[in-house]
Amino acid sequence: MKISPRLATVSFAVAIVTGLAPATLRCDEGMFPISELANIGLKQRGIELSAQEIFNPQATSLVDGICRVNGCTGSFVSSEGLIITNHHCAFDAIQKASTPKRDYLADGFIATGKAEEVPAPNYTVRITESYSDVSSEVLSVINSQMSYADRTKAIDRRKKELELQAEKDNPGMRAEVAEMFVGKTYVLFLYTYLKDVRLVFAPPISIGAFGGELDNWEWPRHTGDFSFMRAYTAPDGKPAEYSPENIPYRPKRPLKVQPMGIDEGDSVFLLGYPGRTVRNRTESFINYEASVRLPLIVDLYAWQIAEMEKAGAKDRGVAIKHATRIKSLANVEKRSRGQLIGIQRAKIQQQRQQRENKLKDFIASDPAKFGTYATVLQQIDEVYSEMSKKGKLEINLRELRTAPRALAIAFTIYDAAVEREKPDLERESPYMDRNFALTTQQLKLDCGDWDKATDAKMLHGMLDRLHSTPGALDIEPIARVLSASDSLDKLTASVMENTKLGDVDFVVECLGKSPKELSGLGDPALDWIIDLYPIYVKQREKDKEREGKLNQLYGSLIEIQRIAESSQFIPDANATLRLTVGKVEAYSPVDAIIKTPMTTLAGLVEKSTGVEPYVTPDKVLEAAAAGRFGGLEHPRFKTVPVAFLYSTDTTGGNSGSPVLNSKGELVGVNFDRAFEATINDFAWNQRYSRSIGVDIRYVLWITGQVYGAKPLIQEMLSSQR
Known about the structure:
This protein is an alpha+beta fold. It folds into two domains: 1-277 and 573-721, Thrombin, subunit H, CATH 2.40.10; 283-563, no CATH class. The protein contains 25 helices and 19 strands. Strand 17 (658-661) and strand 18 form a beta hairpin. Residues 1-27 have low confidence and may be disordered.
């Protein structure tokens, strides 16, 4: 399967948004696949570029300046591989490089030259090169006689085969088969895949996360959520692991930075890799989320965050170890709270019910359709009903092996030992040969962040929760532990005191052992996981069965929805490259309140109290007081803009996406949504769905004027086209 790096087939385009003409598209909603750019009315939306100028499979285009940075998006802003993304996207690299004596989180980081740039372990960069429809190849392996679990496994195996073949035909590249329409349409994406990524500049956390969790998902914001990284290749220009001899990657086209920024009313668009949305899921799914999963996640994550914050309050070393995890959990916890509020406030369940009632009427009106689609919604409801009944137990069991990091490490070690005895294509994805180096590296990093006292608290807390969880005591290993004569305090402390899973050398040694050899080591954390392992395998099989059933059913549901709703049907995002368009504009979250779309340095100074989380470095305050704006002030505000709002359609994964003006010039970096827009995963609304970006003028001001990293500014501006 030889795929030209600059050739894309577009046979799946019609399947993505059939019938969507510009005049019928709902204003600003939609994260559009790059195959659809010619069909969405760019000019009518205020974008001056043509579809070919944004993405051209046969020539250099704007997309060549966009990349995926782990689970975020980034932009190349120089001809030497310099990437701008969010501070929170680079956070793990900053944290891993920090120590109490060299605290890059608190103090920030500036590499004065390329030799001082710090490797970012387990960071990768992907640049989309091509895509091709492989739906027929994927679906050829299933038949109506298969069980739902076997259906999932067959599709998964076929996707892996196609990916491995594409990577064999295109050495150095990364292939990924993405499901575009559930159960129906599959596309193989080919990426340039860079594995040497380094940290270049990061402001202090007091800038990069100003306002902390109080301001997270809120507006107004005064947060400089940006950092710079750099991608490297081998001297011959091919992707390579880290080496001092590597050279900066040379993107085909870096983005042009526009120092004049943006203003209210201007059209903007984003290119990025949004995560998965669930706007075409059923009312029964929304009920499961609202009544089971989201409340439990809020409770579990709030508790874990509190425990880690207490553990790090008196020990900066422990605080640094927990920093990435706290930030990640806190982001999900607050988003989940916002989604719970949004589901109720926006009446999402009622809307889905109304949509489904109309669909039922449409199906009932046609005997042929009734025979094919009459029971689809009912069968989907049955799956979510089962998930709702078992959800508390299943989620708590998963958290038992993830909240205590030693058990998470133990599970990966034992799971790897079991899986790597299988043929490569039959393994779970993290243990395939193409992925195992990253899995191993992540385990090593997890060891470095382990704190046994915190882990004992996590294990104790999860066992307490399971004790009151219906069905938990029916699981023999859980019942045995909870009925032990020793107190939970003593039991959990003993496990963490005696495990060696915080020792990197021991973990690496374990990765070379068989399941039988691991069971003979006598490590208490490993022994716990080995005891529970059949339970987790059974749950994984159950998940595959549900996935197979839902994929098939949702495939049928979407099929009939597209017929019934015609031009109003918009596909969900799926972590592949998408474009979304909007304007810089205010919004009214509730009656009588209007939130204007731009914040400034003057507002930052007013908001700075000197008390966490509103502490601003003296360097920033001094430069602001002296009026050293470097020509970056907004003509109307007479000071430097900090952040701005816009009505693009975004979700997780759009973190770090470039905010581009109508000419495709970089004017900001997307980092968040307003609290009301946490519901975007479930539904989008022009009235309240607003995304938040850091203004490029604030980026340039902090980097060059305040922290003196003027060579970086010069590098960016000298690379402009």
